Automatic annotation (TrEMBL):
SUPFAM superfamilies: Putative DNA-binding domain. The lineage of its organism: Bacteria, Pseudomonadati, Pseudomonadota, Alphaproteobacteria, Hyphomicrobiales. GO terms for cellular component: cytoplasm. Keywords: Cytoplasm, DNA-binding, Transcription, Transcription regulation. Coiled coil: none annotated. One of its GO terms (molecular function) is DNA-binding transcription factor activity. It comes from Microvirga makkahensis. It is found in: Cytoplasm. This is Cu(I)-responsive transcriptional regulator. It comes from the Bacteria. InterPro entries: CueR, DNA-bd_dom_put_sf, MerR-type_HTH_dom, MerR_fam, Tscrpt_reg_MerR_DNA-bd. One of its GO terms (biological process) is positive regulation of DNA-templated transcription. Residues 1-69 form the HTH merR-type domain.
Length: 148
């Protein structure tokens, strides 16, 4: 099948398929004499695997490791679990950071009168060069990450 069909069947854009091939995430495909890529059902299956991993937020490097483990019938499941739990840790940290940013913005918005006057604590906070980064302030206000 051509790249358009592989894209439709896998849910991965043609641009990303070409990128994954260029970085070695998927093997170089067979080409016709005219130079068109030809994809097999196994290629599409691999692309679906990659798409699902991307949907879960795995990095390209992690996906490369997962694809390698997927292809390795002698793999140890602990290796897969280690990658997954490492990713969970990163996701949980990002969730905490996003919650802290939302909390900071809510606090600033609550202290903004929202009227026709120019005074606005949101703008003042963003313009304050002496102010520590938002997450550092959230850490100081709430203690260590995630311990509100």
């Amino acid at each position: 099948m051509n790249i358009g069909h592989a894209s439709a069947a896998s849910g991965v854009s043609a641009k990303m398929i070409r990128y994954y091939e260029s970085i070695g995430l998927i093997p170089k495909t067979v080409r016709t004499e005219a130079g068109y890529r030809v994809y097999s059902e196994q290629d599409v299956h691999t692309l679906r695997f990659i798409r699902r991993a991307r949907d879960l937020g795995f990095s390209v490097e992690q996906i490369a490791d997962l694809v390698s483990l997927w292809r390795d019938r002698e793999r140890a499941s602990k290796d897969v679990k280690t990658i997954a739990l490492g990713h969970v840790s990163v996701l949980e940290r990002k969730i905490r950071e996003l919650q802290e940013m939302a909390s900071t913005l809510k606090h600033l918005a609550e202290n903004c009168s929202g009227d026709s006057r120019p005074h606005c604590p949101i703008i003042e906070e963003l313009a304050n060069e002496d102010s520590p980064p938002v997450l550092a302030k959230a850490d100081a206000r709430f203690g260590a990450l995630g311990k509100a």
